[in-house]
Structures are given as C-alpha cells and as structure tokens.
Amino acid sequence: MRRASCGAGMKPGLPQNPKILVTRTDRIGDLVVSTPIFELIKKKHPKSHLAACVFSEHCELVSGNPFVDEVILYEKKDAQKNWIGQWRFAREIHAKKFDAVIHLHATNRMHIMSLFAEVPIRIGYNRRAPWALTQVFPYDKKEGLKHETNYLTDLVCASGFSSQPAEPVLPYVPVTQGNRLSVSNLLQHLGVEANEPIAVIHPSASDVSKMWPVENFSEFLKQYVSGKVRWIAVGDAKAAEQTAIISKLSGLLVLDLCGKLSLGMLAALFEKAKLVVSNDSGPAHIAAAVGAPTVSIFGRWQPGMNAERWKPNGKKAIVVTPQIESIPVAERAFTYVDRISVEQVLDAAKKVTP
Fold first, then answer.
1. Are 55 and 73 in contact (CB under 8 A)?
2. Is the overall model pTM greater than 0.90, yes or no?
3. Which ranges constitute the DSSP H helices of the chain?
4. How far apart are CA 159 and CA 267, in angstroms?
5. What is the pLDDT along the chain (354 residues), one digit of tens a residue?
6. Residues near 256 by Cβ (< 8 Å), separated by ≥ 6?
7. CA 220 to chain CA mean position, Å
8. Less CB within 10 Å around the terminal CB: N or C of the chain?
9. How far apart are CA 163 and CA 40, in angstroms?
10. Beta-strand relationship, 275-279 and 230-233
C-alpha cells in the first residue's frame, strides 16, 4: 500500500477515460463547499465519468451539476445503516468498475466501503481507517488556516487529479426550472406579488452556539432600510418558534416557511432574494452558491471551526465575526455569537446589496 504526503504531486495510473468517484457524506454546507472539486477534476480529466456519492437527502445539491455525470445516493439511516447494507453497497460500487475514489470527508464507512468495492486507487486523509486507502494524505484541516475548499483543492492536486486553479472556483448549486416554478407558486399562494422583493432570514443552526439571539434578528429587521421587502424565514420545523418570536418582537409579518421547503426549493428561493441573513449553517452556503447577497453570522473562533475555514463563498457573500481581538486566547469562551452587534450585520447587509 502506497503512502504519500501533501505536495507529492503523484500522478495516478488512470486509463484515458477514467471512472472517478468522489464521496462527501457529511453536512449540507460541507457538501456545498466541496462542489468546486467536481469542476477541478473534470477540467483535468474532461473525458472522465465523474460520480458523486452523497447522502440521499442532499441529492438536489449536486443533481444537475454540469461537471457530475452520476449521483450515487447513500442511505446511512436506511439501506446502508448496518454492515450488511454496507457490504451490499460496496458490491454495487464494485459493479460500477471505478478506477479511483477520492474521499473528501474521512469516515470509516466510506474508506472501508471503497476497500471492499476493490476500487484500485483510494485517496483520502490520515484518519478513520486510513489503512483502507492506497494514497493517504495528512489531515491538517483542524488548524483552520485556510478555507475547506482550499484544503480539498490541495488534496486533489497533490494526488494528481487536478491542477491548482489560476482563480478560485466558487461553489455551485443547481437551480431547476421546476423548483423555481414551485417557489413562485408558493409565494403567490401566500400573497407575495410576482415582482415584490423578498429578503430571507435563517435564524436556526445545528448548534445553539451558532445562533445569533432572536432579539438581534428582530432588531435587525426593524432597522434594515432598503426599500420595501417581504421578510421570509426558513429553517427546519423547529425554527418556526424562533420565527414567531422574531415576528412578534419586530412587529413585522415574517412569512414562516420553516420545514416547508426541499433543498432545491430553498436554493430557488434564495436565488430570488434581495438579501439572505443566516447563522453559520448549511443554508448560508446554499444562498452564497446561487449568487444571493448573503450575510452569514459566525460566532465560533477556534481553529478548524472558524470562518476562515467555513465561511460561505460567493460573489456576493460576506461574513460577520465577533470583535474579540482584545481577549487573550486562553481566556476566550467557546463562542461569541452574542457579541456580534446589530450594527455589524446592518453594515454587512449594506455592502452586499445595491
């Protein structure tokens, strides 16, 4: 089994028209920031058959990507939740005769699966069953010195599957005409005029340490002045309670679409938005990827969790972080999301909107 270090510039022994599998079975935002890798690989290997293995619930984030030829769905909580299902999945991958697999996120399941699937070239990081890989690269993402997309770019370049791009490649999430129509019909049903400008907030997050206080969201809505907009809240079903509080405190009607949109419809909604304000979360990455003016709020500062590594990338995306430079690192709390002021977010919103 070969081992390589980053920067080795190894050139894989691939056929002229290789079949390449890229896996990213992780959170929404993690997948979105990985999408530039599809373009990088395809540009280096234009005649390749490039497949993406993702969680089934994330299918709409990559289905329709012009650089992805096939989407393979992974059912961690269903068909592949036990080792029997895992073995069957490995045999399905084996039958597809991939020449190489690149694991963008290290998991025992994916690494071992590719070994059982007998994929000749298996590339990934030195963590979680690295013995199942043929090319292993150091895992230094926890240092948080650069963006996740840049770490992944280094991986595919060092393994010979891409060249360093002259310009940064931004994340991409496809938006279908069907989802555009579904969102338009839904908004019309809720009384939103066809040409009425909308702005979206996402007040929830996967962890409370990422959540800007609802009082701040409500104050932001009251102070935001940029023409008349219809405010809409998105998130999972649990975010409906936060939305109700924000609406009450702000005195503004906030349309509650929490738990009512697929990821594809969410992307279509963001595409229509004049502004998106979101906590550190997957939806913020989707908004940035479809080109929406996006303000994301980051309270975590630790290396590996910080905005330097995880901020949404987009032409109209901006991140707001707490001002904690005066606090010694040894004395810092886990998060300072509550120290991000309404004024900071208002200033950021002005920068990304006309």
1. yes
2. yes
3. 28-32, 36-44, 83-95, 108-116, 148-158, 177-189, 214-223, 239-250, 263-272, 282-289, 307-310, 342-352
4. 32
5. 344 433 444 455 789 899 999 999 999 999 999 999 999 999 999 999 999 999 999 999 999 999 999 999 999 888 888 889 999 999 999 999 999 999 999 999 999 999 999 999 999 999 999 999 999 999 999 999 999 999 999 999 999 999 999 999 999 999 999 999 999 999 999 999 989 999 999 999 988 899 999 999 999 999 997 778 999 999 998 899 999 999 999 999 999 999 999 999 999 999 999 999 999 999 999 999 999 999 999 999 998 999 999 999 999 999 999 988 878 887 888 889 999 999 999 999 999 997
6. 233, 240, 243, 244, 247
7. 25
8. C
9. 7
10. unpaired
* Whether 322 contacts 336, CB under 8 Å: yes
Inter-axis angle of helices 83-95 and 108-116, nearest 10: 50
Residue carrying structure tokens 């036990």: 82
Residue at 122: amino acid letter: R
Q: How far apart are CA 351 and CA 343, in angstroms?
A: 12
Domains in the chain with CATH codes: 19-158 (3.40.50.2000), 177-352 (3.40.50.2000)
Amino acid at 283: P
Q: What is d(CA 215, CA 342) in angstroms, rounded to the nearest whole number?
A: 10
Distance CA(58)–CA(37), nearest Å, equals 17
SS3 for 36-99 is HHHHHHHHHCCCCEEEEEEEHHHHHHCCCCCCCCEEEEECCCCCCCCHHHHHHHHHHHHHCCCC
